Amino acid sequence: MTVAxxxxxxxxxxxxxxLPTYRLPAPGWVSILHRIxxxxxxxxxxxxxxxxDTSVSSEISFAxxxxxxxxxxxxxxxxxxxxxxxxxxxxxxxxGLRHVWMDVSHKAVSKSWGGSSAKFTxxxxxxxxxxxxxxxxxxx
Length: 140
Description:
This protein is an all-alpha fold and 140 residues long.
């Protein structure tokens, strides 16, 4: 008869010693980033509404908005915020599709599929963000 090996107990976790060595798996990163992207889109919703309102109110306000977006330090800042919103939307959308697929498909609920789909989510959102960011900054 073999005796089961006793599992280690972690009662006092040292934040400086234990947490830096902990490796979060890809599904954990996707989960955390899904929450962060949702909060980012919610917090920046007033900016999104202002940008939309400014761009469609009149030709003059659109020209003023375009000028602010294309020139100076404020333009770079607005473009970086827009790039953050692009990433947040893409990541939230792709991770949401992943979650819907896991809810619909019974085969998708496995450790291997969860890891591979999480890696796909991370890579796809970053690649699409780089492509749209290149367009935003006028590289093509």
